[in-house]
């Protein structure tokens, strides 16, 4: 146990980086995912095809391959940024495919009659989206989005494999110095489990609050 | 059409045409930008792509792909078996079986696979357990995917109507026989699509061989790139191979799902 306390600063710094990676890349994924969802539900075939291609590519490529491509491949064509920023962008782009699919399934879960009714009483496209479709769609995606957030937290660990010092990398470094794997790795694992439990708890509360009984 | 739109009228059709043109233009602009960036840095030279038109390069990468498949298949088989045990454990009536199984699933499901890889890579050797490279990749993947498979199986078993179990017990089968002969065959069919898509995830996870230095596809790419210095070309080719394999597998999952009766789909909708 004292190993953890001795190296608290490094581990804490790693945890902060994990938080930064998770929060920033999930925020990016939410924005990009909304865009991807908009493309995929649009009435324009070309835009739908672009959205589908995006989702298919990024759901079927391993995140580690994307990270390696961005960290070691892109500098070759003159695209280079700080490691933390690169990792955030790559994880955001990757998770956006999942967020987009979750949002799309939310929109599709709204009954067709709802949209027809909204248009029949004369709401414009924006109004029917804002007052009728989205409030119902967003309620159903709270739980899926929470799961994607947890998956994002776990996926940020892969940044350790390309040299970002997050919690996983910090734990590994401390272990290389101290050679006491059990407390160090169990501690790091528990930190991830705690984050996931907190998110699960929050989304559970949120969903119960938002649920509509029919 | 959908919840969002009616059949387009003349005005909407005009807008759709405009959006089509704009969408195509944006896509073309992106492609042109990428190609220019490649050209500006001299990465488009034929000499830098020529190697990937030769057989030895591909033979090396395909050997890597074979190792990827090997690791994925072994780890999928082991984690399904382990996952089934965990799922049955979680559904057991005995608390001393149920609680540990539930704890394992709930904790391992949210611990990053890379952390487990590090444990096997750096922690176990300290306790005298130095596995061969192949198992250094397969063991952590199995440990983490078993939890995911356990949840899939549990959802499947729970989706089988209770009357089936009751009927099995009523005709005199033991609980174990009922599970094996009545419930599991029905559950297995229902969770097949989820199992295939989880297996795609597992195949993606084998890219952690990059960390373990087990010669699967991504690590082969790394070795190749270090040897010929063609970084972006090599990693792009590797990415395309992953894409081709996984898109086919995902397509298989969707085909399987489409063949299921609608009522199954709702009940086993992802845990």
Q: Count the E strands of chain A.
A: 0
Extract low-pLDDT stretches of chain A: none
Percent strand of chain B equals under 5%
The rough form of chain B would be described as: flat
Distance between the termini of chain A: 51 Å
Structural class of chain B: mainly alpha
Number of helices of chain B: 12
How many strands in all of chain B? 0
Following the backbone from N to C, one meets helices and strands of chain A in this order, namely HHHHHHHHHH
The gyration radius over C-alpha positions of chain B equals 24 Å
Whole-number average pLDDT of chain A? 89
Figure out the total of helices of chain A.
10
Topology:
The complex is a heterodimer of chains A (about 210) and B (about 270).
Chain A: H1 2-6, H2 8-41, H3 45-60, H4 63-73, H5 83-109, H6 112-120, H7 125-140, H8 142-155, H9 167-178, H10 181-210
Helix pairs in contact in A: 2-3, 2-5, 2-9, 3-5, 4-5, 5-7, 5-8, 6-7, 8-10, 9-10
Chain B: H1 10-40, H2 46-49, H3 55-90, H4 95-108, H5 113-123, H6 133-159, H7 162-170, H8 175-205, H9 209-212, H10 217-228, H11 231-258, H12 262-267
């Amino acid at each position: 146990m004292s190993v953890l306390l001795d190296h608290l600063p490094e581990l804490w710094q790693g945890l902060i980086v994990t938080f930064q990676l998770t929060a920033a890349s999930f925020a990016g994924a939410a924005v990009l995912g909304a865009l991807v969802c908009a493309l995929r539900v649009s009435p324009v075939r070309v835009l739908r095809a672009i959205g589908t291609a995006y989702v298919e590519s990024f759901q079927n490529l391993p995140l580690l391959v994307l990270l390696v491509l961005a960290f070691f491949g892109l500098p070759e064509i003159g695209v280079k940024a700080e490691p933390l920023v690169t990792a955030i962008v790559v994880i955001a782009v990757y998770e956006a495919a999942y967020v987009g699919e979750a949002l799309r399934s939310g929109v599709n879960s709204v009954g067709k009659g709802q949209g027809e009714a909204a248009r029949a009483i004369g709401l414009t496209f924006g109004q029917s989206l804002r007052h009728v479709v989205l409030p119902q769609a967003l309620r159903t995606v709270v739980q899926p989005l929470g799961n994607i957030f947890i998956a994002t937290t776990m996926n940020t660990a892969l940044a350790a494999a390309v040299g970002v010092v997050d919690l996983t990398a910090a734990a590994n470094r401390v272990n290389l110095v101290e050679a006491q794997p059990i407390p160090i790795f169990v501690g790091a694992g528990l930190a991830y489990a705690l984050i996931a439990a907190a998110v699960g708890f929050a989304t559970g509360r949120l969903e119960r609050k938002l649920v509509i009984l029919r | 059409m959908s919840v969002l739109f009616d059949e387009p009228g003349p005005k909407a059709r005009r807008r759709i045409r405009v959006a089509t043109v704009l969408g195509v233009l944006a896509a073309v602009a992106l492609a042109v930008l990428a190609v220019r960036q490649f050209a500006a840095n001299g990465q488009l030279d034929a000499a830098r792509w020529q190697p990937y038109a030769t057989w030895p390069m591909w033979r090396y990468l395909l050997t890597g792909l074979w190792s990827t498949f090997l690791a994925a298949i072994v780890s999928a088989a082991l984690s399904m078996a382990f996952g089934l045990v965990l799922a049955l454990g979680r559904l057991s009536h005995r608390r001393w079986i149920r609680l540990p199984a539930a704890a394992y699933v709930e904790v391992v499901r949210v611990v990053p696979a890379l952390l487990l890889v590090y444990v096997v890579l750096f922690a176990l050797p300290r306790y005298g357990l130095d596995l061969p490279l192949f198992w250094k990749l397969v063991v952590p993947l199995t440990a983490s995917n078993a939890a995911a498979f356990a949840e899939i199986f549990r959802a499947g078993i729970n989706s089988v109507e209770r009357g089936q179990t009751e009927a099995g017990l009523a005709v005199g089968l033991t609980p174990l026989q009922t599970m094996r002969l009545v419930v599991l065959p029905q559950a297995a069919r229902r969770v097949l699509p989820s199992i295939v898509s989880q297996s795609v995830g597992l195949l993606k996870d084998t890219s952690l061989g990059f960390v373990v230095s087990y010669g699967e596809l991504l690590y082969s790419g790394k070795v190749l790139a270090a040897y010929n210095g063609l970084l972006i070309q090599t990693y792009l080719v590797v990415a395309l191979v992953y894409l081709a394999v996984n898109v086919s597998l995902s397509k298989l999952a969707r085909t399987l799902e489409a063949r299921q009766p609608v009522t199954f789909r709702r009940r086993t909708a992802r845990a």
